[in-house]
Amino acid sequence: MQTPLKVLRQRRTDWIITWRQNKVRWVLFYYLVGLIVSCLFMFFEERYFPLPASYLQKSLMIVAWIPCLTVLVSIAVTNRGQLLNAADPDPPPEATAPQDFFQRYAQPIFALLMFATWSAGYFFISSITEAHTTHQLPTLAWEQNAPLVPEYVFIYLTIYPVFLLPFLFIHQKDFFRLFSFAYINVMCVCYIVYLVYPVSIERPPLAGHSFSTWVLGIVYGADHPWNCFPSLHVAMSLLAALTILEVRRIRGILTLLLTVWIAYSTVLIKQHYVLDVVAAMVLTLAIYFIYFRGQILNTLFENILQAEETLEHWINRQIDSRMWDSLNGPLKKRVSEMVQAMIESAMENREKGLDPDRPAPEQKPHGDLPAEKP
To answer: Whole-model pTM?
Structure first.
């Protein structure tokens, strides 16, 4: 089986694009991380220490000030305190032709297309199922008694940068293709369920005039209260976290923790049922094992075959050694004498200048000999 994914279990760091290879992709990656940081900051700010700032200032803080600061700090740390690495010993070639540009930035462009497909597909299905009869799922007692917490809308919004993270720093083509197909499969399954069994949820009225309530109102206005089962928010964030976990353990664990928080936020802002969250996790884990772990099982099978071949060679060597040790009496003595005679003969020929490994010099034919003088 010829598969380039044989190193999946090794958490290959060379699958991650470096700063020297493509600075633009890393700047975009740092910006997405900055968006996550700004949403987390705004959650704690709105919930525990509200700042006396206008909605415009807080909006700019989320989409501009904190992300840009994160980009600058990350670049400085990456380049050891230098914002621009002018002494790059091996700079990447400049993109001079359109095909070179597309080849260099094909994966970020594909990430934007994937994000557009995800969003457009969701809203298109939502417009189709608007006139259909929707269903409601049973709720847990905790779910019924849980209050609406508008501040969790900022945790809910972190799904959008999390969705794009694997596309911007993973460059290994086969693995990139693998998790891209996994993304597409998760979306297709969710869209089919939305069409066949549309589920709606009742939202409580928004009260208060805080910045969190204003942002949650925008989310409510853009996203209709149906197409809930399974939660595409939770499914895509969990798949992104598992994808990152395959190449970077620490980043993957942090993204998994954020995914759990996103799942919790979908219930507290009354966007999804608990069953939506559970169904999304089951779906994502199933596709993850089919795409990722299936490849790893094949890899383990190949490793077992290699281990069997190595064991067979070792056993053959042991058998040869035991057979030599079992030679007793005149036979063993005769074999030893023959080997010793061959070694001595080779040494004598080497001392005389007759290398047995060197071919004999060619002799000229008699016709080429000079004529004898009279």
So the answer is: 0.73
